[in-house]
Design a protein that fits this description.
By secondary structure, the chain is of the alpha+beta class. It is built from 14 helices and 10 strands. Helix 11 packs antiparallel against helix 12.
Amino acid sequence: MIIQSIINRPYSKWLEGSGPYSDIVISSRVRLARNLLEVPFPHLMSEKQAQKVVNQVAQIVAEKEVRQGLGNLEVVDLSELSALDRQILVEKHLISPKHAENAGRGRGLAIRDDEAISIMINEEDHLRIQCLFSGLQVNEAWKIADKVDNRLEAHMDYAFDERWGYLTVCPTNVGTGMRASVMLHLPALVITNQAQRMLTTLSQIGLVVRGLYGEGTEASGNLFQISNQVTLGPQEEEIVNNLTAVTIQIIEQEKGARQHLMAKARLQLEDRIGRALGLLTNARIMTSEEALSHLSDVRLGVDLGIIKTIDLRVLNELIILTRPAYLQKLAGQEMNAGARDIKRAAIIAEKLKG
């Protein structure tokens, strides 16, 4: 089964470290919220109605014409997965924490084998279409998401209003129903105390900043998720182009901060990076927050050419490998926080030394 292969492997296509500006942009994502006409919103649906929506999506993606256009997608009922496996899907950014928690019958996921396309079924809305790419590829992600959207709409009646656009459970998604986002690694802006001012400015131009796992999470490991805040009014292309243009400006600021550090404080920077690598390769106990922080420093060292023996893809993979659910998956058993910290340190050391 596709889903078991995805759960069992730490690799994800969005972590391959390719695409434009991949030294700073970890990933690009486009998510579309859609609801079905004459079907109650998910929080008002019966289990029978919810299951009918899951079955309908499964039938559509199984059709030959759809498979030829979109690739091999598999639909799974989340109630058939363990709580640990659902949490791994959260850690891989394939479903939301809310979708993982509300895993009764009729909560589904359609996913392609390369993880670039995933569709949450009966989360907050009936459909949450998501495309996730490596590097700065917001436009490319939008094109694929639009293609998936069109294929589904050809077989399903969406709830759409001529004035308000696509109708969604949360008013903040009405209109295009689109959330476009990029995940950025901005260590130099943080070290030089420029990040807060720059990120605060984004709210004034219709963008919002969140942590690694989106809404309700704080930034860790100098990783910031930036997305559009307004869905009603601008067209999809405008949202994509605006986010891309702002992201390029942030990239230039991060590059400038990196050059400043190399020119004015290289010894201190090399010391910081060397200490982080030493801890990661020799520590016996490592918390999740510590791991993300030190991996951020080492990643910066790789990007600047200070460290030449570590592949960027390995560092990206460790973002998933060191998360709580995946550690327990590797161990084959439930583990308390202390045991996970020991396991995390061992995995990081093995990966980096290897």
